[in-house]
Predict the structure.
Amino acid sequence: MSVTAVSAPIARPGARQAFIERLVAGGFALPALLLLVLTILVPLGVLAYLSFTDYELGDVDLHYVGLQNITAALTDPEFRRALKNTLIYVAIVLPGSVILSLLVAVLVHRRKRTRSLYEIIYFLPVTSTFIAMATVWQFLLHPSLGPVSAVLRWLGIGEIAFLSNPSLALPTLAVIGIWQLVGFNMILFLAGLSTIPKDLYEAAEIDGCGGEIDRFLTITWPLLGPTTMFVIVTSSITAFKVFDTVAVLTHGGPVGSTEVLLYKVYLEGFQYFRMAYASVLTFIFLIFILVFSILQTVVMDRRVHY
Amino acid sequence: MAAVDIKNLSKSFGAHKVLKDINLSIKDGEFLTLVGPSGCGKSTLIRIIAGLEPQSSGSIFVDGAPIDHLRPHERRIAMVFQSYALYPHMSVFNNIALPLTMTGLSLYERLPLIRLLSPRRRRVMQEIGKEVRAIASQLQIEPLLERKPAQLSGGQRQRVALGRAMVRQPAAFLMDEPLSNLDAKLRVHMRSELAELHQRLGATFVYVTHDQVEAMTMSSRVAMMEGGDILQLGTPDELYDRPANVQVAQFIGSPTINLIPTTVGAGGRLELLGKPLQIDTGLQTGEKATIGVRPEMILPGAAARQSPDQVSLAATLRRSEHLGSEKILHFDVPSLPGISVTSRIGAGVPDAEVENTELLFNPSACHVFDAAGNRVDAQSQGASSAAPKGKLRLAEGARAS
Amino acid sequence: MTDTSITAPAIAGTPTTPAGSAGRRFASLFITHAILITGAAFILLPFLWMLVTSIKPPDEVFNAQLRIWPKHFYGFENYAMALTSAPLLRFALNGIIVCGGILIIQLLTAIPCAYALAKLRFPGRNLLFVLVLLGLCVPEQVPALPIYIALAKMDLLNTYFAMMVPFFLSVFAIFLFRQFFRSFPDDIIHAARLDGMSEFEIVWRIVTPSAMPAIAAFAVFSFVAHWNDLYWPLIVISDVNLAPPPLGMMFFSDAEAGTNYGALTAAATILTAPLLLAFLFARRRFIEGITMTGVK
């Protein structure tokens, strides 16, 4: 269908043109819109609906149960534990990955010859197939076979069962999470650092602000504000969505100490097939993510430049 | 206030030599401008003086004491950057106060939270506040103290940058093209403000620009640079009236000086198009030379006062620019192909009268440059000499004398 | 007006000797690299150990010594074992099929939609954009449940299609390309229309080529993200032959649980290598693509 602006002999060329434009636009947007409806909106609706039923996979019929699922979720000790675990995980990964990546970014930013090398090294975990690396971590931390334990034995501390000790498993996963996130955040910080004009540092040097700490406090940190907030929010969202390490390394154990929110959803929905209950959990998960996302948008708009 | 001496300064970036053995003595209290085309090394030189770049060789002295090993803030200089480099997240007050807080407070007194423990800090900050306000009122930016740089106009930002420099009471002010980010009218205004500021403070100003008008109007002395060398150092008048070489002659003065190729004839007398000019030089016969004539010294017949020993060139008008009080005329000279001659005359003469005309100039108005482009002092004959009387006719279509 | 007590200390100038400042510079350089190298060691440790273990024979693995090079080079055996006892190449192939399929549909649906949002006027345009923004906030795990139920009912589990379905739509791609298209000069499009080009042709032959950098970066982002995805494949796939790399690795790891670390790390190396090598070759594109989420 050819759309020409000039040659069509019409009484009101503008109207016809506009109509065709709308038709074409509709056609362009239709596939995406269809997918959007089918893969996001309808599922959301189904989730909402299922939350108020007692559906389990394979059921022939389902019944309306009102708020029963919701109250069950909020009082379920396992769910609360999952939520608590997730929040603890975020509480460790967030400061760890943000502070470390900021430190590394600031140090790497000034290097000239070694900068590429460090960038590559720190970014490797992001590109690696995480499940594969998770398996390697499992071996690394193995109490009898792993090198970490070997070093600990050599230092005289003795073996530590990182992944099978209920109080150590979650922090261990958090360390692995930091390992994976540092390079990514570092790149974001490097991008932010490169937006700070070089002559600000020169003016500061002439003004007496030459030491590293002064430079950082007076110029770098304030001007990195928007980037920092952004990194914090995206890291929170990423950390909140933790699943892979739990699924591969600990399967939620030992004794449920690493059962995180998404893993609980997975168990309820796809192991126990209690779909209705899983729907509620999914919604709670979504609400948390939405809150973080809104924070992200608000923060980006507010702290925009001076 | 202090004198700055630069001795044998060179700077190379890799194989590229940006500054070649610079020697420059800047007097206490003078306004010295470094002017030249892009890439001539002027910005590099000023940054080396500031301590932002190390030199490859050579030394810098302030009041006789070497400063090469001193870090920038120890050198008692202040710099105004082209972009002003104001700290965007700080208020105007804090921008101006920063040099004082950096030097007046120790590190612990500056660290957030910890600084609350220092009793001395409050006292020092009060003193700093007084100084900042004094400077701000001098520059008439007191009402702006609480604003952030983004809320200021270009001229206001520049004054803040000046304030930040002044508050350090430096030995010398370095300015790296501070006016180039302003629009034309504002630039003119700020030029006079800066000149007045210089007079008021009596400080040593080292000013970098590529704009020769700024150089001419503001400076006590000008150093013209090109390709890493200082081509000429002198007062603006000296550079205009006695340019040391062709580059200086071309750079200073607007419209650009007219350069006409000549050859050296018998006895060192210059010849134009085969006919001798009344200019005697010490050059060898057969060498090439160039004469430079300022546009206001080469006039079409209708506008010129005729005198017997003037040189005449037949010319046709190619384009004229009307500037209100004067005109700039661009002529093609058939006998000098490829050379365009510019003339500047008062607005009274209509274009039609100069369509096809003779261009006249006095030999005494010529600057002579040798084949290498360097100035040659020459004798030009006056009207009373024994040279042939009457106008020299160098082209066809002569007028009756 | 001067209070010299403030400005005196530093302005009087405590000149640092050349040796002092050089010493200071060296110290700061030393500390910098010490910190960076420590961090780098932490980062590289798993990779190094993965490579090292993959060439060790089982007895050395169980000896738990801190050796770098094994006494007995067992690399061939380990890698052969990994390749035969688990269909690793099959996993990689599955990865390519799934990620490639996803990417193609993503581009085919997102580019026209983004163009319409950026350049054309139609009723519901704003509503559509709001929906897109909303979609950005919804992580993949949320619609998983209902889509799974639907697929189960349609008996489409355990298929390539099932693995790709939730990702056919990339709201991120729509958002990203819309930004890009918005800055594309309208005049070129008007000229093309005057020349008789249909909108369809305009989109694919004129506007899309100019967006190649953004498309390339997005392609990297999408490919890497789905290559590494575990959650959805875990849910819909139980057939080993269809497993993409992460799931395949998990199957293999479960099968070899606790025993053959040599083969396990060999498998890990094989599965990690493609992306890593691609990264080393096309570092700029990679970083651009992956940090596109930053641009979000």
